[in-house]
Amino acid sequence: MHYLAYNFGRLDKLLIFKLDNMNKRLFVAGLPFSSTQDELRDLFASVGNVVSTSIITDRETGRSKGFGFVEMETSEEASNAIAKLNDTDFGGRKLIVAEAKPMEERRDRSQGGGFGGRSGGFGKREDFGRREGGRGSFGRSGKSGHRPGRGGFSR
């Protein structure tokens, strides 16, 4: 365990921060789709004290997505859980246990999706698959040296 002391410019106030070498929250993948949070808690309780468990489910169907998160009481217990449970069999599936990464900020989904951030997803329609002065790469007009029988569409 490491500690960081910082003064914040005032001699009468000294704050001490405890720095953990590792996150206590674990990412667990490869869960059987039928597994429950209680089964996940029991599995990780065999290697340390479990603070919380969550299995991620599909919003529409409610069915498990096959991964979840476990929070251990200390970072030492979390690293012990990774060492003992990663790449082991659980319910007929191979588990992947790793340190959980912070969730990246999602962009606003109301802006449209896909590529280019436009509401169609792929950019402007008139730009899609077109070249200057031609019909694009689809359905060639027979010009520009196209030879039948060499791939592409022939007429």
From TrEMBL:
Biased segments, Basic and acidic residues type: 101-110, 123-134
Molecular function in Gene Ontology: RNA binding
Disordered: annotated segments: 98-155
SUPFAM superfamilies from the UniProt entry: RNA-binding domain, RBD (SSF54928)
Record-annotated RRM domain positions: 24-102
UniProt xrefs under Pfam families: RRM_1 (PF00076)
Positions with biased composition (Gly residues): 111-122
Keyword vocabulary terms for this entry: RNA-binding
Keyword Mitochondrion listed: no
InterPro entries: Nucleotide-bd_a/b_plait_sf, RBD_domain_sf, RRM2_NsCP33-like, RRM_dom, SLIRP/GR-RBP-like
Span of the signal peptide: none
Keyword RNA-binding: yes
Source organism superkingdom: Bacteria
Protein name: RNA-binding region RNP-1
Organism of derivation: Candidatus Woesebacteria bacterium GW2011_GWA1_40_43
